[in-house]
Amino acid sequence: MGPNHPPGPPARGDLGQTDPRGGSFLAALVASFALFAATASAVSFLVAAGSAGPPVVQPVLFNHQVHVEGEGFACADCHPGCEEGVRPGLPDDETCAMCHSEPIGEGAEERRLVAMIQSGAPLEWQPLFRQPPHIYFSHRRHVTVAGLECAACHGGIGQSQEPPQVLEALRMDDCLDCHRRHGITESCTACHR
Ligand code: HEC
Ligand code: HEC
Ligand code: HEC
Ligand code: HEC
Ligand code: HEC
């Protein structure tokens, strides 16, 4: 198991290529994004951590709750580095194939997943939480050493019934607020490396 996508911010450069209708659709998308961004900044005090952008679309409507509460999975079963590593990673296709190489439920989304697994099409999960590459953030330090819950930074995603569509990012102020509360370093070079 390991990360199956490259690190770094999600690629947005292919917006135009997937558009069958030419530039006007892209222009409309850009305009609606600008509107969304303006609306989002007007209400930004309501969103503690998060940044608006085009919706993040996942290959499958994955349901955390079914697997975490229903099946008793630990976060680390699918995100292997979340306690002892720097980066948690996302599940590889073999993890899903352990149970979904044949249908086990009745749902249409599971049937779609089984078809993808049987065809060998890779599941390309899109990142939701990302920092710029020069920011150093270690999960081991925060989860295992500091004993913080996942939800302190990721909210309710572990119980979500479908993938969030909004790209989330802890802002520097979020990092600093918590560091101040815990009396942890605020030195620039601790995080900017
Ligand atoms: C059965 C596998 C599985 C388990 C168990 C699981 N996850 Fe996930 N997780 C996924 C998949 C698949 C995605 C990508 C789709 C999505 O966002 O829902 C994901 C996405 C995430 C993301 C966003 C990743 C990114 O790239 O930004 C976070 C954060 C996360 N999970 C936290 C948790 C937490 C916390 C738990 C435990 C409470 C947990 N997960 C348990 C499979 C799993
Ligand atoms: C103190 C805040 C904090 C805590 C606590 C935390 N995370 Fe994260 N998590 C982050 C940040 C920040 C990122 C983005 C890191 C980056 O881009 O380098 C991230 C990224 C991720 C990702 C994206 C996958 C990847 O490899 O980049 C997953 C999955 C994830 N976290 C799961 C978890 C789980 C599961 C837990 C609990 C066991 C947890 N996190 C606890 C802040 C946190
Ligand atoms: C240990 C077995 C197991 C593994 C591994 C597993 N699942 Fe599941 N999954 C289940 C079970 C059990 C259900 C519930 C089936 C039902 O009754 O519909 C389920 C349901 C689903 C559904 C339908 C959910 C819904 O709300 O209709 C999807 C989609 C799904 N899983 C995706 C995944 C993905 C993607 C992975 C890999 C990241 C994965 N599963 C890994 C056991 C597993
Ligand atoms: C919810 C609280 C919380 C948040 C949010 C948080 N941290 Fe931390 N961080 C801690 C604690 C507590 C420690 C001390 C762990 C230990 O005892 O070593 C720590 C330690 C660190 C260290 C090691 C410091 C050293 O002395 O070398 C770095 C680097 C770091 N955090 C970076 C970040 C970054 C980057 C972010 C934002 C993306 C962030 N942290 C967000 C609580 C937090
Ligand atoms: C606890 C971690 C942490 C500390 C300490 C910290 N930063 Fe940051 N900083 C971040 C994170 C995370 C980002 C990226 C997210 C954002 O832009 O808010 C960032 C972004 C920035 C940016 C925006 C451009 C960029 O690099 O992405 C500047 C400028 C900056 N920091 C300067 C500083 C200075 C100067 C200090 C020391 C006084 C400092 N930071 C200390 C975490 C930290």
Structure description:
With 193 residues, this protein is mainly α. The chain has one domain. The chain contains nine helices and no strands. The model is unreliable at 1-50 (pLDDT under 50). Bound molecules: heme C (HEC) (5 copies). Residues 58, 62, 64, 67-68, 73, 75, 77-79, 90-91, 125, 127-129, 150, 154, 157-158, 163 line the site of one heme C.
* Share of residues in strands: under 5%
> What is the mean predicted local confidence, pLDDT?
78
> What integer value in Å does the Rg equal?
19 Å
Low-confidence segments, ≥5 residues, pLDDT <50? 1-50
Helix-strand topology string: HHHHHHHHH
Number of strand segments: 0
Bound molecules: heme C
Structural class designation = mainly alpha
Main beta-sheet annotation:
none
Helix content: 25-40%
* Helix run count: 9
The span between the termini is 28 Å
> Which outline best applies?
elongated
Domain count, please report it: 1
Short summary of the structure?
Helix content is 40%, strand content 0%. With 193 residues, it is mostly helical. It has one domain.
Which terms summarize this structure?
mainly alpha; elongated; binds heme C; disordered N terminus; 193 residues
List the helices and strands and how they pair.
Layout (H helix, E strand, L loop, with lengths): L22 H20 L21 H7 L4 H4 L14 H8 L7 H12 L19 H7 L5 H4 L17 H11 L5 H4 L2
Helix pairs in contact: 4-5
The protein binds heme C (5 copies).
